[in-house]
Amino acid sequence: xxxxxSHSSRGSAAKSWLDKIAAIFTAEPxxxxxxxxxxxxAAMRKLIDNDTQSMLQGVLDVSKMRARxxxxxxSQMATINIDQSLEQMMPLLLENNHSRYPVVNEDKxxxxxxxxxxxxxxxxxxxxxxxxLRDLLRPAVIIPESKRVDALLKEFRQKRYHMAIVVDEYxxxxxxxxxxxxxxxxxGEIEDEHDHEEDVDIKKxxxxxxxxxxxxxxxxxxxxxxxxxxxxxxGTIGGIVLHAFGHMPEKGETIELQNLTFKVSKANNRRLxxxxxxxxxxxxxxxxxxxx
Length: 292
Prior knowledge:
The chain has 3 domains: 2-64; 68-187, CBS-domain; 193-291, Uridine Diphospho-n-acetylenolpyruvylglucosamine Reductase, domain 3, CATH 3.30.465.10. By secondary structure, it is an alpha+beta fold. It contains 11 helices and 12 strands. It is flat and about 80 Å long. α3 (50-63) crosses α8 (179-187). A 5-stranded antiparallel β-sheet has the order 8-9-12-11-10, with helices on one face. Strands 1-7-6-5 form a 4-stranded mixed β-sheet. The chain has a 3-stranded mixed β-sheet with strand order 2-3-4.
């Protein structure tokens, strides 16, 4: 009798578990948590692959986000001043490689419009001096920080614009959002042809200046620079630097660690991307000695 009862209990438990699985796939999800469970279960059953699961999760995450959650903050916005000449703009254009820039008048709270680099190049290549930067501007789309990201993506697609300026409740500019920022939430970070230049972890730029990917493993960095950063503190040099700052640093911020100066040369609102590393001039370049 006991064995029959035991078999019966196991059978009931298995049936109950199967009933739950069946209910997930046959019943309509009641909320987002139910939908997440359906997606995770589908991945476990190999109905969808991991990439599809990640994208579906990204779509669900976007549905809960506001513009403030994904915007490039004001401090990291690359802008052009309305009074700048083409020659004055070029260093900024070459450094950032963006396709469009907000154009400001005096400060970032006064947005005159959006400049598309292709519009600028068209006039620059013509060699004409009879044009004004103001004449090339597209209207700036202004949105509140509370704007739903899924609704913004729909507007981007319907109205065919790619950038929106985010303002706070007082009308001050707090950041910007591009269509790429939204898509990255769904499919992961999108790299372009310029990002391939960063495949080399450490690149010597001058006698004491190096360009270093923030994703460079700590052991590789230590070996190259003769430093002793703790691999248990972080796996990458970007993690070491971020921990030392104690906050997400802005582009241009510097910090000194183990006789090296680290300058943030590229970052977004989520992570460090590229660092400039400067050796103190009194530091002996051991790699040069080894070559001799």
